[in-house]
């Protein structure tokens, strides 16, 4: 076998053999991405909403939008009309009725009930898209007792920073109301030093924390993302978390940059909370064109992929965060024999 390889190498030459090897790997990578594309097209809710998981995802997206609407100090009545209509429709699906006690379905019902009650209390007519009989039906199905928002003060929000991990991790929420006062660079450096303890594949550490404190650049980046609309005026610092493709070498690692980036992101959020810095991660599920624009705005390399935006700052004296109930373990834990 070694003799055959030597003969082939002699006939083709080292450079040609390397070219053939590269072509094979490119074909294999293209095939892997094609399979990924088919699976994502089939199982995401982009094209079809034909399973409970897809419906649950759509429900969560919409109720969280309404939930965020309750955070504003001055609530705009009849906000989220389209989201309310869509939620009411999704909750009528038979697949959803079967899972009526699941936490996301219950959260949707809770938000709709509070939404209706808010408008009713203030004599705002919403019967053109949310009728009283629909509200009454939902109210009968509601089994959780809570409000869509939680109330905090800047003095009590960080009370559990030195507590056990159970209390510490549960105390962190996404904060959107900032004073506008900048966090000292030295403090953020300490945060990054702590966040750098996050594990990465083979300890490659291909994650970068890019701090933006130029207001014009912050506004340009946030205009691409849109998730912090209504809260950006008092935002004076933004982190753009990136993962560098240059650190990955195999076809099987084609998505490892997101895994490493996600692990680092959670460690960064905990490090910020520990250092008494409020934060709100803003997801970056954006098209490639948005990545290119951010690369130009802050001078990223083409190899760097934006993982997440994180708004940071000091919280105002009194603020609200969304309830954002988490699943109980029986909804996403199973023992495989």
Could you characterize the architecture of this molecule?
The chain is of the alpha+beta class and 337 residues long. Helices cover 49% and strands 12% of the residues. The chain contains 13 helices and six strands. The chain is globular, with a radius of gyration of 24 Å.
Care to give the gist of this entry?
The chain has 337 residues and is α+β, with helices and mostly antiparallel strands.
What are the main properties of this structure?
4-stranded antiparallel β-sheet; globular; two-stranded antiparallel sheet; 337 residues; alpha+beta
- Beta strand count: 6
Number of helices: 13
Q: What are the low-pLDDT stretches, counting only 5+ consecutive residues below 50?
A: none
Rg (CA only): 24 Å
Share of residues in strands:
5-15%
């Amino acid at each position: 076998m070694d003799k055959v390889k030597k003969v082939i190498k002699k006939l083709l030459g080292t450079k040609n053999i390397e070219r053939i090897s590269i072509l094979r790997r490119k074909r294999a990578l293209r095939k892997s991405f094609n399979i990924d594309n088919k699976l994502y097209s089939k199982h995401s809710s982009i094209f079809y909403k034909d399973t409970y998981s897809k419906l649950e995802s759509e429900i969560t997206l919409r109720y969280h939008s309404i939930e965020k609407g309750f955070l504003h100090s001055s609530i705009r009545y009849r906000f989220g009309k389209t989201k309310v209509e869509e939620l009411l429709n999704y909750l009528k699906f038979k697949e959803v009725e079967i899972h009526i006690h699941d936490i996301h379905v219950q959260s949707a019902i809770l938000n709709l009930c509070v939404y209706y009650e808010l408008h009713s209390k203030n004599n705002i007519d919403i019967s053109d898209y949310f009728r009283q009989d629909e509200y009454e039906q939902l109210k009968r199905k509601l089994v959780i007792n809570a409000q869509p928002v939680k109330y905090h003060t800047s003095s009590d929000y960080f009370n559990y920073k030195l507590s056990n991990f159970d209390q510490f991790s549960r105390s962190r929420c996404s904060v959107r109301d900032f004073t506008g006062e900048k966090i000292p660079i030295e403090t953020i450096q300490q945060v990054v030093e702590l966040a750098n303890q996050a594990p990465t594949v083979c300890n490659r550490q291909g994650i970068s924390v890019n701090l933006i404190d130029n207001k014009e650049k912050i506004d340009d980046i946030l205009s691409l993302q849109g998730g912090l609309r209504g809260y950006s005026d008092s935002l004076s610092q933004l982190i753009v978390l990136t993962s560098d493709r240059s650190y990955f070498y195999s076809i099987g690692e084609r998505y490892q940059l997101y895994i490493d980036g996600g692990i680092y992101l959670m460690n960064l959020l905990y490090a910020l909370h520990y250092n008494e810095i409020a934060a709100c991660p803003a997801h970056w599920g954006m098209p490639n064109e948005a990545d290119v624009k951010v690369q130009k705005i802050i001078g990223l390399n083409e190899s760097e992929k934006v993982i997440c935006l994180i708004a940071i700052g000091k919280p105002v004296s009194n603020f609200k965060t969304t309830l954002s109930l988490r699943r109980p373990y029986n909804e996403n834990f199973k023992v495989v024999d």
